[in-house]
Specification:
about 220 residues, alpha+beta, 2 domains, Enolase-like, domain 1
């Protein structure tokens, strides 16, 4: 399970837009990008497997909260967020909003918060407003640019994490005794963001575990 895949950008056609703040005469509004809760569920299924994640909805101080748990190395890890609710329809929306906000804590759709919310032309649709069709090509173009930058940034982060893992594996396997190896392993576990590294890059973490185990076996054989 590679949890870094949770934060991958969604296809452009899966991103939806709604109207946020408007001007006084209700002719222009801020375009806000969002994803559907079903796309979040599909992302969790694809990355974690349907059997390795779950959600629950406790209430806290009048707000609907969502906890999303992912099973990591046999243990459930939970992250939570919430949204307000009022009537029945509002409560249905609150469940969806709370679910998506909890998913952001796992990295799903987090990049959308970095997207600028441009002012666009809007028109009335019933009791609310919607973005005019002529604005969508510009919104999609802006989103494409943002996704491109996000992917480039992620590649840089992945490359740096890979190099760090290789360096630490070499450092671990240069130990000359079991005591020195154990001391280095404990020092490695004390580095900042170690828990985040283990949770988000389990394959790289496993590489370090295997390097340690291989040297441990060799040193034990030499001592026998």
């Amino acid at each position: 399970m590679d949890l870094t895949k949770l934060s991958a950008p969604f296809p452009i056609d899966r991103i939806e837009w709604r109207v946020g703040s408007t001007n006084k005469d209700k002719t222009r509004g801020m375009a806000l990008a969002y994803i559907d809760a079903r796309d979040v569920m599909a992302r969790l299924d694809d990355v974690c497997g349907p059997e390795n994640w779950q959600s629950r909805y406790p209430h806290a101080n009048g707000k609907t909260c969502c906890d999303i748990g992912i099973k990591i190395d046999g243990e459930w890890v939970w992250k939570s967020n919430g949204a307000g609710d009022t009537d029945f329809e509002g409560q249905k929306g609150a469940f969806s909003d709370a679910f998506k906000r909890a998913a952001v804590l796992w990295g799903i759709g987090r990049y959308l918060y970095d997207i600028q919310s441009p002012w666009v032309e809007i028109e009335q649709a019933g009791r609310s407003f919607r973005i005019t069709d002529s604005e969508f090509p510009k919104l999609r173009a802006a989103l494409t640019r943002q996704v491109t930058h996000t992917r480039e940034d992620q590649r840089d982060i992945d490359s740096a994490t890979e190099r760090w893992t290789e360096n630490k594996a070499e450092w671990l396997t240069s130990a000359h005794t079991l005591q020195e190896l154990q001391a280095r392993w404990e020092k490695l576990q004390a580095v900042p963001n170690w828990k985040k590294f283990v949770e988000q890059t389990p394959e790289l973490h496993q590489r370090l575990v295997q390097a340690k185990a291989h040297l441990e076996t060799r040193l034990q054989g030499q001592a026998a």
